[in-house]
Amino acid sequence: MAEANRPSRFTGSTTPGHGTPGHGTTPGHMSASTTPGHGAGTPGHPGTPGQGTPSRTGLTPSIQTPGSTTPGRTPRGSLKRSVHNTPGHGTPGRGHATPSTPGRGTPKRTPKRVSAEALVFKEEVQRHTVHTLVFRSLKRTHDFFLFDQWAPLQPHLDGRELRRSCKIRSEYAHVKDMPAPTVAKKESKSTPLGPPSTPGSEKPPVKEISQALALVTNNNNKAVTLQSRRAPLPKPQWHPPWKLMRVISGHLGWVRCVDVDHTNEWFVTGSADRTIKIWDMASGTLKLSLTGHISTVRGVAVSDRHPYLFSCGEDKQVKCWDLEQNKVIRHYHGHLSAVYSLSIHPTLDILCSVGRDATCRVWDMRTKACVHTLTGHTNTVSDVKTQATEPQIITGSHDCTIRLWDIVAGKTRATLTNHKKSIRSLIMHPTQYTFGSASADNIKQWKCPEGGFIQNLTGHNAILNCLALNQDGVLVSGADNGTLHVWDWKTGYNFQRFQTMVQPGSLDSEAGLFAMTFDKRFVIMMSLTNTGLSPNLSRFCFKTSL
Asked: What is the pLDDT of residues 258-280, one digit of tens each?
């Protein structure tokens, strides 16, 4: 009776999802499931021993294997995994038939599949040893340098002869069969160098042949020597030495420009103190000061045919001064930046000005109209010169080029690119059809009108700011470091050098030369120098020949 009243330990259940192992049922409450796909095994393999599935009769307990759920010890949180099982997949909660890890209730991950190509590649890499790879590299190197691809091809003699015959037939057919000149016949009839051969002997003696060959060799050597001898260098002309005659102070800033009146009675200077001063040539005294510029005065020019003085400066202005009234009568507007130099045409009533806007502007003096705007330079145009013959306008720029301009067409006539440094000064020869240019690399001489190169004047290793040339062929160059070299224009011989002295209170680096010119008699040379820290220290030096 007791056994009949006691509930059975194993109760078979046909309800889907009730009796699945892993539900945390205590002993005496386990049930077996007969629903397809809800047991521990897959369809076709129901009730596999070791999967925790009891027999259908419900009288045989399941066999617990390591990793399977132990009755009475399964936590409640893991019961929900076995509720929803996909038909045909007997793994609780996953739907994948993967074996569980021993000792844990989580399924084991499936390892990644490796493709056959990767396996083949891996085997090939492992099959080659270092010795094999080195041997293959050596073989490739040997095959690469085995043939002489760099060597020139062997000449094709037949092709060369064919090319020569074609050229003779096409270009020299009319002179190929001409008779030999009469001079050659006369030379063939002349007597040989050696003595006549004796009857019965076909060749002259060896001694006589050697003497004849020696004579011919000596004659040939003599001729070659005469041809290879170069013309001797021209001897430089003697010029009297120059000495310092006078030092004049008056400006309060750097003296940047100078020009002499055609009467040779006075000269004019422009300075960084924004003033233009007129000085007496004989005594060196100040005669007049003109004010009107609001920045540094960079260029002055006195007209030989008008009572006008033209000036330009870093304030972008070009002014025309009437020296009879001592005031400005015209302004020439158009430059977009500082104006660095100007030049008056010797025969036409036009004025040329250049500046930092990389242009050269040609002005009509009377109407103030801009006749031409000559463009082409790519950097600051530092100097401009004019002459009555072609090219009538020449400009030098910091882009290391010199341009010769056609004043009628307003275009470049020629561009000279020989200089490697910025060109800061140009000079026209007063009597010859030549001009010179100064740069930090050297001084070059050019021939008009096409700008043919003549020669280099090397030796003044500094930044050259100015040039001066007189009709005696004396060229003077001034540099930024205060050195002054005197040259012979014809030969390029440097026969005298100076080093300017700074005034008391100035630094040694402030002895630079910015402008220079000769007077109209070409016996006085004026050079304008830098200024110092205290006032009245800028000066210009007069140097005269003995």
From this structure: 999 999 999 999 999 999 999 99
